[in-house]
Amino acid sequence: MERLSVVFTNYIMKKGVISKENYDIYLYGFQSFLELFLNIICSVFIAVALHMEIECLLFFLFFIPLRSFNGGLHLESYYSCLVFSCMTMTAILFLVKYIHLSAPVSFILFLVLLTAIKLTGSYNHPNRPVDEEENKEFERKTNLTFLLSILAALGFLVLQWDRYLLLLALTYLLVFITLVISKFNMKTK
């Protein structure tokens, strides 16, 4: 991704679209875009192959905000992160497709995991320092994400949408596991 980002950035600089002072900003922007685009393409491919497009969309609706505001596991390279992300998403989708838990059991599992995440607390990565004000904002957004997830879970429970409730519980399980691994890795360094 980095080489392609360099090619794109050099091209638009050569065309006079950007100045040399903005080179690093555009390089970072292209690299971030390309990495996100590849992740989305892989995720869509997996979802279509499993015929689970709605579940994939729901997975990301629950996972992305919680992971963004609460922190979690950071791997050494983009490609290891991509492979890990694809593997965990595929595993969750397979479990949702082939395992059945009743809605009440999935709901209780979800509540236990939500509580476990809340008690574990957020993870601030050392490469991106967070000040007190940002921490409060992230905590507020995490709590809002929890509230919206609880409302969704209650809706799934009332409608007896076992599959989506299990998906929500497994998504929270993934967040909890990666949060614990991150905190453990931080203590061992």
SSE diagram, text form:
Elements: H1 2-14, H2 23-50, H3 53-70, H4 78-98, H5 103-120, H6 132-159, H7 162-188
Care to describe what's here?
The two termini are 29 Å apart. This protein has helices at residues 2-14, 23-50, 53-70, 78-98, 103-120, 132-159, 162-188. Helix content is 81%, strand content 0%. Helix 1 crosses helix 2 (23-50), helix 2 (23-50) runs antiparallel to helix 3 and helix 2 packs parallel to helix 4 (78-98). The chain has 189 residues and is an all-alpha fold.
Q: Short description, anyone?
A:
With 189 residues, the chain is an all-alpha fold. 81% of the residues lie in helices and 0% in strands.
Radius of gyration: 19 Å
pLDDT under 50 segments (min length 5)? none
Count of discrete alpha- or pi-helical segments spanning 4 or more residues:
7
Order of helices and strands: HHHHHHH
- State the distance separating the first and last CA atoms: 29 Å
What's the total count of β strands?
0
Mean pLDDT: 90
Q: Major beta sheet, specifics?
A: none
Helix content: over 70%
Strand content: under 5%
Q: What is the overall shape?
A: globular
